[in-house]
Amino acid sequence: MYPACSFVASTRYIGDSVHFRITQAARAAWQKNMNRLRLLAVLLIPILFSGCGVLAAPCRIASAGIKMVPIVGHAAALPTDACAAVIDP
After folding, report:
1. Residues 5 and 30 in one domain
2. Which DSSP string corresponds to 42-80?
């Protein structure tokens, strides 16, 4: 019914569905590819969002919340304002 594959250790037929048991080598190859994909995502996402206001939003929201504190709010919010300015100039 299905062609023999090198990555399939065994095949079970249950009703209309087919269940495959994947070999250890295929699982290791898949894991290696997923690790590469994760690394690529970790490296590219900051580049895609550089200078983006979305990344500066948590700093700006925290700053606005701190500025509501009477007397010391504006002085205490300076570090979060600096954070937002660095992320999104």
Report:
1. yes
2. HHHHHHHTTT-HHHHHHHHHHHHHHHTSTTTHHHHTHHH
Tokens of 49: 């969002």
pLDDT per residue of the chain (89 residues) written in tens, 0 to 9: 455 555 555 666 666 666 667 777 777 888 888 889 999 888 888 777 666 777 788 888 888 898 998 888 888 888 888 888 887 77
Do residues 64 and 34 share a domain? no
Q: Indicate if 12 and 28 belong to the same structural domain.
A: yes
Give me the domain span that covers residue 89.
47-89
